Amino acid sequence: MAEAHQAVAFQFTVTPDGIDLHLCHEALRQVYLSGLHSWKKRFIRFKNGVMTGVYPGSPGGFMVVVVSYMSYNKFRQLDPSLGLITKLSQHVPVSRYMSTDSQRIVGGVLVGTGLWVTIIMIMRNVLKSLLSWHGWMHARHGSVPWTTRGWMLLVKVFSGRKPMLYSFQNSLPRLPVPSVRDTCSRYLESVRPLMEDEQYERMKGLAEDFEKNLGPRLQWYLKLKSWWASNYVSDWWEEYIYLRGRGPIMVNSNYYAMDFLYVFPTSVQAARAGNAIHAIMLYRRKLDRAQIKPLMLLHTIPMCSAQYERMFNTTRVPGVETGRFSIIPISSSFFILCENTLQHMNESKHIVVYHKGRFYKVWMFYDGRLLLPREIEQQMERILADESEPQPGEEKLAALTAGDRCVTPWAKARELHFSRGKNKQALDAIEKAAFFVTLDDTEQRFDEANPVKSLDSYAKSLLHGKCYDRWFDKSFNLIIFKNGTMGLNAEHSWADAPIIGHLWEQVLCMDPVRLGYTEDGHCCGQLHPTLPGPQRLQWEISTEAHVSIINQNHLKNVAQVFPVCKTDKGKFCLTYEASMTRLFREGRTETVRSCTMETCAFVRAMIRDETREERLRLLKEAAEKHQNMYRLAMTGGGIDRHLFCLYVVSKYLGEESAFLKEVLSDPWRLSTSQTPLQQVELFDLVRHPEYVSTGGGFGPVADDGYGVSYIIVGENLINFHISSKHSSPETDSHRFGANIRQSMLDILDLFQLEKKAIK
User: Fold this and answer.
1) 223 and 328 fall within a common domain
2) What is the pLDDT of residues 621-643, one digit of tens each?
3) Which of 150, 151, 533, 664 is exposed most, by the fewest CB atoms within 10 A?
4) Domain, as residue range, for 47
5) Which UniProt keywords apply (predicted)?
6) Euclidean distance between the first and final Cα of the chain, in Å?
């Protein structure tokens, strides 16, 4: 391929007269441009660090404060520092370079700087105090009390002007630690509808014993951590729930995002890849420059942006076995676990593309600039046109990232076969890439003539594909299908779904509208006449390594997801609904236990077909209860992360708790999550409802449960993604979806909106 011609850019010949050196001016030019690009990026990062570090102040504010202070001191002949300037001036040595007047100016600048820093710290702490108040959540929809309006005005005053992505990080409050009593009480309330009286009384006794004895001791350590660490939950949650997980991440952790359903911008695979990759790289540039606007509720209340930092140039690296304790209670507290880490690079100038069993390194910059969409399409066309065969063991290499983590075959194979030589170089190229791209050789698309089968096939392909054609350890995989449809597969440990969703909304907005395509479906622009081609990654995979690859035990996990079975459960179960805690620094998620006594009462009333008035009353009570639980979860009053951290502390202390052990062993048979549409301004949902994301989904958490993801699109559309396992005779994704649809129709009928419209 084209990279072979670039190898002659630097040549030398050894002769009797010495070394005859030949340099290619084009090569030197590219080296210069690459270095210039790197230094520009470093300068931008330094500048952004300064801007963020002094926010809500600014360098311009520094000049205003210092100049105003000095002017007041000079023209009024007053010293508002009460002699501090004079005292500081005396410590500045006088010489031929420093007169007495200059000495006083330096003292004034120092005092002005101190005043400026003091103002910043006051504004930052006042803002932090304001953001610790969450009374605004209790206002009814459509009405804003005067107290909330006044509070929002103060927040805007102390928030500064033109915030950057990370500007509010130092002003966000820390996640509070709930009291043990409140957590135990709310836990008992959450399990009451799921337990018989005898079982509930037993659990109540365990909770009371924990609250009086072991709980306060564990709580002391959590309080200490909450004062010392930025967030008392997030680091342990990432380490023990994600990075020390034992199951395959392909189905049990990774999730996917879909393309448009009803719009097909182009059927040219390389062209769709060109626009999508360019849009993603533009997003990365904005992210590097902190030019993405921080997400703010009600356009006023900032949310934590820490999770954006590892979106690109990040991969999950398998580690060696370790004998640390388990977070999932079993008969023994200690056993072998895999210790994974997240590897993040500050900068990466390439991506890696997989096609028909071969890996390619593709540079994203040339001539000191980002490649344009048509140039990226050109690179994809070269890959698609390559008819070479995969090297031995190369085709299914990525299966190692999909396999079971409890016996660490990937970590062992990495150490034995990929730690040196060509294999290490090729693996480094993948793991240091900005992201991973798969040019899939299958066609996926929503088919109105066969909607169920087509969507099932599309979702399964995004979630796991062939199990060896996605690099599941990368922060995210961009998947472009043969007919131009696309989607994402994202690894979960580095961030939660709304973060990757923010990127995906920007890509879907830019692709057909801002970037566009020509009439024949290609990217706009011109081909590059001298653009070096992709570089084929080289492997030397031994027979032993090949056996390790093909012996992965993940196919049985894939075969269990999504197919139709026979019966539904027909009973209430412990239900997980994800909420966010990004109102706090480094906040991630909290659980809303949405199966409540009020919800169960409403469901029973609907089944028994009680009077419309009674059902409406119970629906209102259930909705109010659910909203209150959401408020508690978002404001640090949730119970599951607190219980999780108490359990971690108990294991560090070597203490056994029957209460915590039972709490954390309860299976989440219904796991739900909403994927919110965060940037509504990017889409015209009234005139073009088809130009919007369909959302995404994930695998079931329990073997006999469901995974349900949903996205509310405007006022008239909700998309659901439902998964379950074939191995369970109790679950059926299609029937469950039909029941959800019927339930929504029943609630619609309950409100009798059509009759009201007629009146």
Assistant:
1) no
2) 999 999 999 999 999 999 999 99
3) 150
4) 3-53
5) Acyltransferase, Fatty acid metabolism, Lipid metabolism, Membrane, Mitochondrion, Transferase, Transmembrane, Transmembrane helix, Transport
6) 72
